[in-house]
Target: Helix-turn-helix domain-containing protein
Amino acid sequence: MIKVAILSHANVSLFELACAVELFALPRPEFTSWYQAEVVNLDDGNIISTANVGLQTKCVTSLEEYDLLIIPSWPTSLQSIPNNIDKEIRKFHADGKRLLSFCSGAFLLAELGVLKNTKATTHWKFESLFRQRFPHISYASNVLYVLDGNIGCSAGSAAGLDLGLAVIRSDFGYQVANQVAKRLVISGHRTGGQSQFVESPILEVPNQFSEAIEWATDNINKPIIIDDLAARANMSRRTFDRKFRASFNLSPKEWLIGQRVERAKGLLESSSLPIEQLSQAAGFDNAVTMRHHFRQYVGVAPKVYRQQFSH
Model:
């Protein structure tokens, strides 16, 4: 049982808090193993959230019993950090436990020195302020989230869902994460970065482009030629590549590989297919190619992944 603390405080953002609750605290009787999560506070004060919504949460004096701590948000302005929050989060980090920040929650972790020698990110709106305040921290720009060791940061509010799903995938596997995503009615694994959400021009023929992407997703196990995909979108190859990069922050080839790796992960968890057959079912030419890309994207060999997550 993984015990999760979701930190509430006087300035907590209601949406980010709710995202953390939905991901980790919602009862999920369909799973034999799941998180035990609580929304806690460390200062025993009145909590007034967005739109003056009052919150009553569990007051604790220590985070020692928890394995994972989530910081849903934190003010971006300079202000004093309550002593108990300061002490307990520093101790939590020193004990080697996992910490996640959603959106502006990265500012608290940065102030406490938790992000030293760790990659971090926050909402694009706060990037310049974050870089200015914390020039010693390695900032990851134009990403939905970063996971670096025991520390994870999401770019924005909804990107906290992406980060949370990545953690769930790591803890319980691809199939479970996909079930959670389905219940949330969101994609199990979004690719791309923040740039796709910032002043993106409206596509002149959005249906043809999106239909081409949908077709590729449905046929990911088959050979797909990028020129043919561009033709399905009724675009020249150059225009298609440019639009793809602007939409996903990836080349079409990189996106196809990523989608095939995701398909392979699902097959490794749910089937006993030999690796050679599985690689073809995922759309790779052969097992050697799949192993190469799988290790590059996931960090372990397919065989190791299957041992860890197959049921």
In short: The longest strand covers residues 36-41. Residues 192-206 have pLDDT under 50 and may be disordered. The radius of gyration is 21 Å.
